[in-house]
């Protein structure tokens, strides 16, 4: 059993299989597509919603420091991802990397973790999209009935679970269905749409930064680090670290880029560029928006669904014209995040299925569109149900801890592989190994420690469910554990 659990994939055969696969995924993505996919996934809920929430509840104006801390962890993890993506340019992201370095059991562990990450991220963002879309229609006198725009259940720490009186969050399910059709039709079409959306939302963000600079009241930045309330994680330096852990959710887009390695035209060169450029661009935008946001409005007022819109209201009539573009940018931005998260999730299902750890159904490729249509359909149904039935506060809780765990394992894997397989061709090398991966792992682990106990308990329950599936099905059907004939 122990021998089976920790068997590793041979990197050479892994690469040969991906090159020789017939009827597999089509290589159509360029560097530009990959950078846009990264920006498309990173610039979304984090910048349009999470900045205000984290500033109001955890870090105040010092949320800019939180973003820098998270960015440092992401940069180091990103350098490790870039080495893996150039060395092992196959679908599957951290799952595939772990399979070749830590063995099958750890690969399944991280794969199941990625499923949690992408499903719940897509669901969370779909609910956020619904809120902005409903508000946008309200501005034009079109009102969706209340019982069709909210989850039927909600949860608070004081009241527990309770019924809201709503039937379903229809707009959230609608956008998921639209994105699934695009993904089934083809990766290049999806990437082209994403490129257009990325341009729209980046322009809107730059407009907010450019015009908002004139309305900053530096008094709102004082105190820059609000005094701790006496409780860990609520302002002070512990609040900065709690804020960094919470907003880590905003950075998971570059992880999604690595899931498309098997569809990149020149993955050895393009994947590192796609990961690192998208991470750099988004970090600069996040820090700048946070500074402008907390400069225009006091951080204590920003715990609202649309903090950027609130800041525009605070600026007065001179910036009122920007409200509509911001809502359009938010709707477009959140749409692209849903698209990229569902794309990544379907590729994780596809890759795990090809290894035999999930049924063959998930790795079927459409004969016309060359996309994993079954995986995409299952992903869209799961995300649609999650978004339609559950409240956003429950959906967002698990995403950061799952992402941090994935990044930690990738950093550790780089150190292991440098020792065990120094002979493998590395078109891109992580600099200063083992310093960079070790620091990356430590920063990610420190942010995991800063998260609430409830988040850890929910993660443990999810992982136990994954272990049941692995030992009941995966280990028996694993292609790696079957004797070759």
UniProtKB/TrEMBL annotation:
Membrane topology per record: Multi-pass membrane protein
Membrane-spanning parts: 34-56, 62-84, 105-129, 160-184, 196-216, 236-254, 275-297, 328-350, 371-392, 398-418, 430-450, 456-475
Keyword Transmembrane helix: yes
Entry keyword annotation includes Transport: yes
Highest taxon listed in the record's lineage: Bacteria
Cellular localisation: Membrane
Keyword terms: Membrane, Transmembrane, Transmembrane helix, Transport
Name of the protein in its database record: Amino acid permease
